[in-house]
Amino acid sequence: MNYLIGLLRHVFMLLAVIWAAATLNFFLPQLAPKNPITEKLTVLGETSGISSAQIVELTAALNERFGLDRPIWERYLDYLGDIARFDFGQSISNYPARVSDLIAQAIPWTIGLMVSTTIISFVIGTLIGAWAAWRRDSVLLQAVSSMLMVFSAIPFYLIGLVLIYVFAVRLGWFPISGGYSIFSIPAPTWEFAREVLHHSVLPALSITIASIGIWAVGMRGMMVTVQGEDYMTFARARGLTNRRMFLNYGVRNAILPQVTALALFFGQIVTGAVLVEAVFGYPGMGLLLLSSITLFDYPTIYGIVFILIVTIAVSMLAVELIYPLLDPRVRR
Amino acid sequence: MTLLTVRDLRVDYFTTTRVIHAVRGASFDLAPAERVALVGESGSGKTTTALALMQMIDKPGRITGGNALLKGQDLLALDHEQMRRARLSRVAYIPQGAMNALNPVMRIRDQMLDGMADHGRRMGRAEARDFVAAALEGVGLPADVGTRYPHQLSGGMKQRACIAISIAMKPDLIIADEPTSALDVITQQQVMETLIAAQEQIGCGLLLIGHDMGLMAQATHRVIVMQDGLIAEDAPVDRIFTAPRHPYSRMLIESVPSLGDVPQDQVREPQKAGSAAVLAMPATGDAGPSELLRFDHVGKTFRGGFFGGGDVRALAPVSFALAADTPQIVSVVGQSGSGKTTLARLILGFESPSEGRILWRGQPVDAMGGRARAGYRQQVQAVFQDPYGSFNPFYQVDRTLKLPLVNFDIAAGTTDRRRRVEAACSAVGLNADEVLGRFPHELSGGQRQRLMVARALMIGPPLLVADEPVSMVDASLRMTILNNIRELKDQFGISVIYITHDLATAYHVSDYVLVMHQGRIVEAGPPRAVIKTPGHPYTRALVGAIPWPDPSRGWPPVGRSRAGWDAAPVIHGGYPGFVLESGLARAA
């Protein structure tokens, strides 16, 4: 019964967070002094020789077409109704494509790349961190973990550039950019899957190398703390095997904050690693977001940010619901 | 025939600059079924000795010599895996910090079975269930504790669970490292009796480590006193308490605050005329300037969370008044959860009352504005339990001491501040040259706590709240610090609210004692009356459970029934300057 009330409360909080964030998301860009239509038409005017009177007329027509002439509260209410149906209207920069279609095209690429790299780097990083804390006398482990710490200080995109230079330009083992070859058409064939995998190796590697260290450092710190706990001393005094102390007493307790961090990390992966996607020309959400921002494509920005809000809120809910399963102390 | 023979045990710690000889050739024996106390203050080497028996000395420490024969086999000669197998099955260890000795994410049952599985005893479902139930029953816990997590148990239950887990394989020797130091006296007696019963049932030896001579007198057959890594005295319990040969043993025994022999000058009978006069004061009338602090039906209820967890009544409404012109020491005694700390926090202004009013010199504290509140904070000072946590570890202690002088604008100029700090140090018996300019970690616990008293003294508040000021300090220093606190009152006219779980120290230091239980005051009166003739069943249980440093005076049978603990409070009359008024009779 209590769990049900708690669940309802969490879901209510989820909706409230999404509403509040969506509202901010609506009003903040309105504060920007630029109008996307004027922006676009000014460029058009400079290049095509349309008269300024025609531009004014065109601007008014387009403002009406996109509903930008209506009062702000009316647009706000419409906006709320639309986003509830995941309808973000039409893209301005890719007119007349619908924003939801653009996102639907981009999101699998990002999720595929980010989920796999996040899981890989979490598992490897956490294990290395735990081991490095457990075996503080092992020179090899200390060397590996300090090296990872150095890597974690280098930004994703810089590692990406180095990887491109070495493995794509000099050695030619992997393609320089893109999610798949420009000559092929996406289709559910083995051939295409192999190609996608081939293209994703370098972006995945750059993200993994840069983030393993972050997980390792966090885990090592927690593990050192846990090793100083009384229950570790007691476990040792009870003659438990090293393996059991490491896994059931050490890792099991030290991993708790890591799991929280992982869930929050998952919340943000929909925007991808924007710069990594830019460096590799990877057709995911990051690239879409980047191009929408440069072109003041409000509907697309709204759409992406809204998806981001929802995933962050959902992953926070996931933390709230999963954490009690891992840590009995927070159960009610 | 001996069970354990330790000969010339040596443990050294190799720091980068020097070698510390923690244990310097300890030799002692333990007979089968014998209970031996290993006592000493912090740094005496008693815990190191015990850990060495299990080869649990970590770097930079090393066992550098000696042997320890358990039933003829040298524990120190076992290799890593042999030693692992010997732990739990042959040598059991009950840890000091029972509060955190259990893995918080595992059920009690699993923490019992995993150790046995690692010693080759795997059990089927039904067998395991029966085994756990029997083991828990053996320490007086219900079988369903096995399925619970550590945070769902009280401190006493956790310690019992630790005992059950440790002795599950019926070892030859139990080493218990201060197993009850975090528990109140009633729980302490219950847990000790459980441990002794289990030890007698198994028929194994027990090495009990601690510093409480009273407890050792009640629980053991023989006492080994350690000082600076050496064994100072090793004698049967009857002899050591009647005729200690080593001066250090004598000092340890004498430092136990006993309830019998209070020096005559500390016996203070209430002055009847005065108390009658103040008792007649109206309960809620306007406070005259003669009142320092008044609690006017003050209660505190902590509200439960948004969901789950009900309201907790930490303090039932209580009214009392503390006079401004008659400094006194009022002790508030109770176990954890009794509401004594809530009372202290209310006085310090860290919590707001959920009902009633707190008046400071007639002014409601809640209504005070910025300046008035700052003045209030200056006039009500605190000394806390952990003297290390009270200092900023990055500052030399001088800076922490001088800070209030600057903040409250008490002294102007460096020379004046320095002079005041030095004067305060000497007032608490510290040599200023020895302690000033040092960092907190360079000082002993006793020095740190005395500096905290000195700090309070410099500000010269009319009221000091001392929350367990001596519970983390070595026994030999306790009385010194308590005497410092007494001097605050006698020489400087500072009133003290002394919060403690230890009835014996309260008896020594205070003019008036309040005994609290579950948020209510159950007994109040001058210390002699409360301790010599306790009227309330709870106080009687509390007084009875105090371990006396006298083996001939046995522990009275522990009152397991809590009958009468919710009885009406017993008030032994007032004391001039402190008046307990009303609102304490209602049961929660």
TrEMBL record, chain A:
One of its GO terms (cellular component) is plasma membrane. It is a multi-pass membrane protein. Residues 107-323 form the ABC transmembrane type-1 domain. It is found in: Cell membrane. Keywords: Membrane, Transmembrane, Transmembrane helix, Transport. Its main location: membrane. It comes from the Bacteria. The keyword Transmembrane helix applies. InterPro entries: MetI-like (IPR000515), MetI-like_sf (IPR035906). The keyword Thylakoid does not apply. Gene3D superfamilies: MetI-like. SUPFAM superfamilies: MetI-like (SSF161098). Belongs to the binding-protein-dependent transport system permease family. This is Peptide/nickel transport system permease protein.
Automatic annotation (TrEMBL), chain B:
One of its GO terms (molecular function) is ATP binding. Signal peptide: none annotated. Residues 6-253, 293-543 form the ABC transporter domain. It is a peripheral membrane protein. CDD domains: ABC_NikE_OppD_transporters (cd03257). It is found in: Cell inner membrane. The keyword ATP-binding applies. GO terms for biological process: peptide transport. Pfam families: ABC_tran (PF00005), oligo_HPY (PF08352). PANTHER family: ABC-TYPE DIPEPTIDE/OLIGOPEPTIDE TRANSPORT SYSTEM, ATPASE COMPONENT (PTHR43230), ABC-TYPE DIPEPTIDE_OLIGOPEPTIDE TRANSPORT SYSTEM, ATPASE COMPONENT (PTHR43230:SF3). This is Peptide/nickel transport system ATP-binding protein. It comes from Paracoccus lutimaris.
